[in-house]
Write a structure and sequence with these properties.
single chain; alpha/beta; six-stranded mixed sheet; five-stranded mixed sheet; 24 helices; binds adenosine-5'-diphosphate; binds magnesium ion; binds zinc ion
Length: 631
């Protein structure tokens, strides 16, 4: 960048210099005289010719007269000194030309006639070209130059790729990795994904095996799944397993300010990959360039060009060359259909959230990196973290290690792991937050409401922990529940039970204190979402039956549903959802009323203890049997 500034400085001085030279040239070494000097010269008969210009008179003098001026002259001495100097520098026969500013002189013509001087008006044509060049072209050229300079500086700042001359040239070099150092061992769970990818590895090793029999290998595979499930990790593992050159870019690396840069980057990438074949090209977060082109709202030339180039390159290259393209995305539904066509990313590899076994395996992989106590029970941790992605679990192990250090332990204990789970789920404990007795009591009843609803409805489904110590992610208290088995489907009854459980917190507040607090907002949101999807997506209402009313836009991110029906049907959907919620809430209230003695007993216990374990809860709950069986 200093060189850029220097170049700019040089450019500026060149322009100034040029202007000076041209200015000097255009004045043609003329000397300026005052008007009275001119009149004096005229009177002495030294003027040969006068050219009348709009702003000046250009006066040509007789050379001889001046050259041989013998006597001191009436004209001011200094002018003649200049003349003599000029004469010494220039050639002897050159006529001397001087100029003077034009005065509004009505006598001028008569005076010139009287002295027999030739005069004419100048026709100004000569300076046009010059003027256009210097006044217009030069500034434009200069600005263009500056612009290019700026661009170069910017691309320098953005990682030194490209530049004025080689836009998009050899960018891929930056991303080339000979060894990723990751193998399939480092990726736990995801067995199906690994199996599909093993085939690709095999292809890179022995392409003949496939070409001999006439099989065409897939050109590309797209890894699809929620964030943090190990897509990037898997792609690296493929490269590590295949032991080939790995070109890795993120989709957003292609999208730059200038149209055409992305496309040329794609071209370069493919060129380099085939030069280094066998190799793998990995485009992470491919949705950044692969977004559907028919989205009118946000048309983007640069992205479209890049995408088109990518499509063209994928069509163009020969899969027998040993180049495999991997892509990863968590927004597959936004991808342009052309990308998914056979011959492009024709293989889709789902990388889903891990199941119980997957979570155990992932925890083991990451536990190897820390000193883990032999008493640590990773299975238990896996059991209480349904829905956690690989990245969350990796994070938990690290949080646990940090907690162990804080506790001055030499190895990570189960306690640290449990704390880490809660930190990842609910945030850190807010120790400094002081709740009033009244608020604390309401929270205790609220949480016991949830726990009771769960245990009563499910016939003793274990509760892991109940706490009313607030956490940074917003919860004032919560019930940590441990599912005994992994579920892939939920029945209508189960969904209703979940809704009842979610609403039981508010129901407990109502039953005990006859109040309604803001603490239930999350519960309400969750219950509403469940009730709504029962009606709109799972065909679980009598009113709409199997009619699908909503579809999910991006399954792996926020999972927001989009309504696909008329306003009127939408209104009916709302009233159906409301009905379910009302019924479930009523059920929660009834349930807690039936067990209000238990509610009071356990909630007061929680109020004093602040945190109780699932075992303590069950013990209290099962005491003084029999109690009325509610449902
Ligand atoms: P994605 O690309 O799907 O968003 P990443 O591959 O970047 O997720 O995963 C982030 C981190 O989470 C990884 O570096 C790894 O530490 C951990 N991780 C995710 N999934 C797994 C897995 N299946 N096995 C082991 N570690 C995993
Ligand atoms: Mg990733
Ligand atoms: Zn609640």
């Amino acid at each position: 960048m200093p060189s850029g500034i220097m170049m700019a400085a040089i450019a500026v001085s060149v322009v100034i210099l040029l202007n000076m030279v041209i200015g000097a040239m255009s004045r043609n070494n003329m000397v300026r005289v005052t008007y009275d000097e001119f009149v004096a010269l005229l009177a002495e008969g030294k003027v040969q010719e006068v050219e009348v210009m709009p702003d000046r008179l250009v006066i040509t003098l007789f050379p001889e007269e001046l050259a041989y001026e013998p006597e001191p002259t009436p004209a001011p001495a200094n002018i003649f000194e200049v003349f003599t100097q000029q004469r010494n520098q220039g050639s002897a026969n050159q006529p001397l030309v001087v100029y003077t500013g034009r005065m509004p002189d009505p006598e001028l013509r008569a005076m010139l006639d009287y002295h027999g001087v030739t005069y004419s008006a100048a026709i100004i044509t000569t300076n046009w070209l010059q003027m256009v060049f210097f006044q217009l072209m030069l500034p434009i050229l200069f600005i263009l130059f500056l612009f290019m300079l700026l661009r170069r500086m910017m691309s320098g700042m953005m990682g030194g790729r490209g530049g004025i001359m080689g836009i998009g040239q050899s960018n891929a070099k930056v991303y080339m990795e000979k060894k990723t150092g990751v193998t399939f061992e480092d990726v736990a769970g995801q067995e199906e994904a690994k199996e599909s990818l093993t085939e690709i590895v095999d292809f890179l090793h022995n392409p003949e095996k496939y070409t001999d029999i006439g099989a065409i290998q897939p050109k590309g595979a797209l890894l699809v799944g929620p964030p943090g499930t190990g897509k990037t990790l898997l792609a690296k593992a493929v490269a590590g397993e295949a032991n080939v050159v790995f070109f890795s870019l993120s989709g957003s690396d292609f999208v730059e300010m200038f149209v055409g840069v992305g496309a040329s980057r794609v071209r370069d990438l493919f060129k380099q990959a085939s030069q280094h074949s066998p190799s793998i090209i990995f485009i992470d977060e491919i949705d950044a360039i692969g977004k559907s082109r028919d989205n009118q709202m946000s048309s983007n030339d640069e992205r479209e060009q890049t995408l088109n180039q990518l499509l063209a390159e994928m069509d163009g290259f020969d899969s027998s060359k040993g180049v495999v393209i991997l892509g990863a995305t968590n927004r597959p539904e936004t991808l342009d259909k052309a990308l998914l066509r056979p011959g492009r990313f024709d293989r889709r590899i789902n990388v889903e959230l891990p199941d119980l076994k997957g979570r155990i395996d992932i925890l083991h992989v990451h536990a190897k990196k820390v000193k883990m106590s032999s008493t640590a029970d990773l299975k238990r941790i896996a059991a209480i973290t349904p829905g956690a992605a690989g990245a969350d679990l990796a994070n938990m192990i690290n949080e646990a290690a940090l907690h162990a250090v804080r506790m001055n332990r030499k190895e990570v204990a189960q306690e640290d792991l449990m704390e880490a789970v809660e930190v990842v789920i609910a945030g850190k404990e807010k120790k400094d937050r002081i709740m009033s007795e009244k608020e604390k009591r309401i929270v205790a009843y609220h949480e016991i409401g949830h726990a009771l609803a769960r245990v009563i409805q499910k016939d003793g489904k274990p509760v892991e922990k109940i706490t009313i110590i607030p956490r940074t992610k917003g919860a004032l208290g919560y019930v940590l529940s441990a599912p005994e088995e992994e579920k892939f489907m939920h029945s209508k009854d189960e969904m209703l039970m979940e809704i009842v459980t979610a609403l039981a917190g508010r129901a407990a507040e109502e039953v005990q204190f006859n109040t309604q607090t803001t603490g239930a907002s999350n519960d309400i949101e969750k219950a509403t979402r469940m009730a709504r999807s029962m009606v709109s997506m799972y065909g679980m209402s009598e009113k709409f039956g199997m009619m699908g009313l909503e579809s999910i836009q991006n399954r792996y991110l926020d999972g927001r549903a989009v309504l696909q029906v008329s306003d009127q049907t939408g209104a009916e959907l709302d009233s159906e959802v409301k009905k379910i919620l009302q019924e479930c809430y009523q059920k929660a209230v009834d349930l807690l009323k039936q067990h209000d003695a238990k509610l009071r007993e356990i909630a007061e216990y929680l109020f004093t203890k602040e945190t109780i374990t699932g075992d303590e809860f069950m013990e209290l709950f099962e005491r003084e049997l029999p109690w009325p069986t509610g449902i």
